[in-house]
Amino acid sequence: MYHVLLVDDEPRHLAGLSRMLQSLRPEYVIRTAKNGVEALAICEQTTFQIIITDIQMPLKDGLDFIGNLPYESGPRKVIFLSGYGYFDYAQKAIGLGSFEYLLKPVDIDKFTQVLERAERSIQEELLVQEEMANMERQLKRVVPVYQQSVMNRWLKGEQLTATLQEVEEIVGFRGAGRVMLIDMQSTGRYKLKVEPIVLQIQKALEKLTGGEHSCCCCMIDNHANQLIMVTNAELSESDGQRLTAAMIDIEKDFVDSELRITVGISDKAIDILSEGSRLLIEAKLACESRFYLPGRRVYAFKQSMMLSDHALVFESKDAEAFIERLQKCEDPEFQLPVEQLYDRLLATGRPIRAVIISYSTQLLTEVINSIEYLGQEEVRSWLLDVMQREVKDVPDLECLKSNVSAVLLLISKKLHEMKQKRKDALIYQCLAYIDEHYMEDLSLESVAAIMHFSPGYFSNYFKNKLTINFSQYLTQVRLTKAKEFLMDSNDKVYHIAAKLGYHDAKYFNRVFKKEFGLTPEEYRTIARSMSHAREV
């Protein structure tokens, strides 16, 4: 469906032309105007695909009307009508981009042919415009991807497929400049949408530089939620304070995401195009320094003391020192030794977070796997799992030191528990050995040697566990067995004494009487008579 405007100062001609067009194209939306002034006013409000206008009209003729038409992006076909077949009119009409020039009175067959050609021409132009629009949309998609690819390779120091001139065109300047890394992290339950944050950050930076400096958004790493910018702004200390305030304001607008923005700023390079990769490394390191100096929003590389190639070579002596402390002390203190360890590790510079985390993990793993009394595999596995949780995702150095101390204290507690269980198990082994060998010539020294204890330690350990000493317990076992032998057998007392490990029967009699107030024979007589009485 097309919108068509008919313009003619003769009402009869205008009505006739309208009826003819309506009969030929009933689907057209047709409007009419009596002169160029009226037609121009209508065209300012409505878009027409076909305009059919007389040339000779009062107030504003057809040529003047067409010459003053507002711009229209879509196809528009102009057909001039005139009762005068003068060549100069045709020339002027052609100069104004007319599609056709027809003489009055209009021949219906000729008019039909002109309409058909106009329609085909409009369709062809619409197709061309659609193809151009598609190409433009594709370019809008492809160009940013290409530019980002160029910037990625340039900032990473990789071989460029583009020229430095193309890089300069993307960056927007040449000469002195610096790189900024903006890291956007979220701890909220809502997924972070990076694009609106990026727009706000760009506005904040444009406001900060006052429009006097270039500030090019070079690359968005959506996976890491990182934005990289290249700027030739000076960024003084006061600018850093304003930038900090701007980042805090942006965070407030995304409170549901619990947004936290960190900005790392590289040093300034004299020639930004030749040093982009170095500046990106510096910006990343500056951003990494939040691990050592938490709480800020903006970090400058020159103040960070960060080292890109600083590696910590693990030394077993660090683990051995903690293992020795764990094994020697029942209640060891770890805060100070941990502080001293990290002071020494960081004395020559600050490595990136991943390096210090890796060292800490290796240290604690070595301690857990080397402790002698943590023999149960499930205990070691549990401690290793706890260590991974406590150390892996710490936000800063102070938290790391605190968690390492806490893990060491947990190891100490588990070690104490395992030693206690081992001691409890040993007392039962001791008692079982005495119960099985009471008839032998047992002594505190001989049993202590079998249990791998010193006599002094074994004596104290035994008494602490049972509240009686070794000889008292051995006597109780032997006398209990003696009562069984006296009751169940007719063996002579000296035979029973020998079975119990007593070489002197008289000594056995004295010990038995002291414990029960009866001699062995008296006990046998009374015990059997009482048993017989119960049976009767």
UniProtKB/TrEMBL annotation:
Q: Does the keyword Cell wall biogenesis/degradation apply?
A: no
Record key words, sorted: DNA-binding, Phosphoprotein, Transcription, Transcription regulation
Keyword DNA damage among record annotations: no
List each copy of the Response regulatory domain by range.
3-119
Looking up Pfam families in the UniProt record yields:
HTH_18, Response_reg
TM stretches of this protein: none
- What positions does the domain HTH araC/xylS-type occupy? 428-526
| Coiled coil residues, start to end | none
The chain residues annotated with the modification 4-aspartylphosphate are 54
- Recorded protein name is Response regulator
Q: Which organism is it from?
A: Paenibacillus hexagrammi
From the broadest rank down, the organism's phylogenetic lineage runs: Bacteria, Bacillati, Bacillota, Bacilli, Bacillales
